[in-house]
Specification:
By secondary structure, the protein is mainly beta. The protein has two domains: 39-139, no CATH class; 147-243, no CATH class. The chain contains three helices and 16 strands. The protein has helices spanning 8-25, 59-62, 98-101; strands at residues 33-40, 43-47, 80-85, 90-95, 124-128, 133-140, 150-153, 156-160, 168-169, 186-191, 198-206, 210-213, 216-217, 222-223, 229-233, 240-243. The strands form five sheets. Strands 8-15-10-11-12-13 form a six-stranded antiparallel β-sheet, with no helix packed on it. It has a four-stranded antiparallel β-sheet with strand order 2-5-3-4, with no helix packed on it. The protein has a two-stranded antiparallel ribbon with strand order 1-6. A hairpin with a 4-residue loop joins β3 and β4. The longest helix is centred in the first third of the chain and has 18 residues, at 8-25. The chain is globular and about 55 Å long. The relative contact order is 0.21.
């Protein structure tokens, strides 16, 4: 998956305006608002949403598919989503189709009500049976003090993402800080642009050598903006806690 970088210039512009307003009113806000454009490729995509959206980060909010007329009338018909739940070691599922969109009880056209929550730090499979589609997420940027910047990873597989709205290196990046790994922990990335689609880069953690990709030494644990991945906690440290660091000063 490829995404456009968070519109920091627009975000900083909003912050500048907020700062001027604050100076004139003596009222200050620590909330920073941004947007992310995400490309959903035909087939399977492993996505995330590193923003706190309004009124929530539910599927019905992020991908509204209701029958109330364009532009949100059955536009995601045929799409399906899966979100891994470590608590039940199984997927939460939902799907959309044109026949269900106008029926009572099917909020936003999603058969299970569109209640699956793609909160910052989580991931979700999206299956797009049609053409390449661009979607935009708008919301507040998680900052220090937000519960979303702490992700608890139980032993086993976890479908996660960085809650920080930026791409790049996960390990040495002073924001994302994947420095908690135990022996034999693994990271798996999905490449929706491959033909056929397949898992791409995978990384294995060695307590002496650190992270390595496909047997090659080096810090290669990277991610794109709004991209989720699998994190396998091998259990050497028990439950692991991933705490990120991010703040924007107006």
């Amino acid at each position: 998956m490829r995404t456009k970088t968070l519109a920091l210039s627009a975000l900083l512009g909003m912050l500048g305006s907020a700062s001027l307003l604050a100076q004139s009113t003596n009222v200050y806000s620590i909330n920073a608002v941004g947007y992310i454009n995400v490309t959903i490729y035909p087939g399977f995509n492993l996505i995330s949403c590193p923003l706190i959206c309004s009124p929530n980060n539910s599927l019905g909010t992020l991908l509204p598919n209701g029958g109330g007329g364009l532009p949100t009338s059955n536009q995601y018909s045929g799409w399906a989503v899966w979100q891994w739940s470590p608590a039940i070691t199984n997927y939460l599922q939902d799907s959309a189709n044109a026949k269900q969109a106008n029926k009572n009880g099917y909020t936003n056209g999603w058969i299970s009500g569109g209640t699956i929550a793609l909160n910052p730090g989580l991931g979700m499979w999206v299956q797009n049976p049609g053409a390449l589609t661009n979607v935009t997420f708008v919301g507040q940027v998680p900052q220090n003090g937000s519960a979303y910047l702490t992700n608890v990873l139980p032993v086993g597989f976890n479908m996660v993402s960085s809650a920080v709205p930026m791409d790049g290196d996960l390990v040495t990046n002073t924001n994302t800080l994947v420095t908690f790994a135990g022996a034999s922990d693994e990271v798996y990335y999905w490449d929706p642009t491959a033909s056929p689609q397949a898992y791409g880069q995978s990384s294995l953690y060695n307590t002496k050598k650190g992270w390595a990709a496909n047997g090659s030494a080096g810090d290669v644990t990277t991610t794109n903006l709004a991209e989720a991945f699998w994190y396998f906690n091998a259990g050497a440290n028990g439950t692991e806690t991933w705490t990120e660091n991010f703040s924007i000063n107006p």
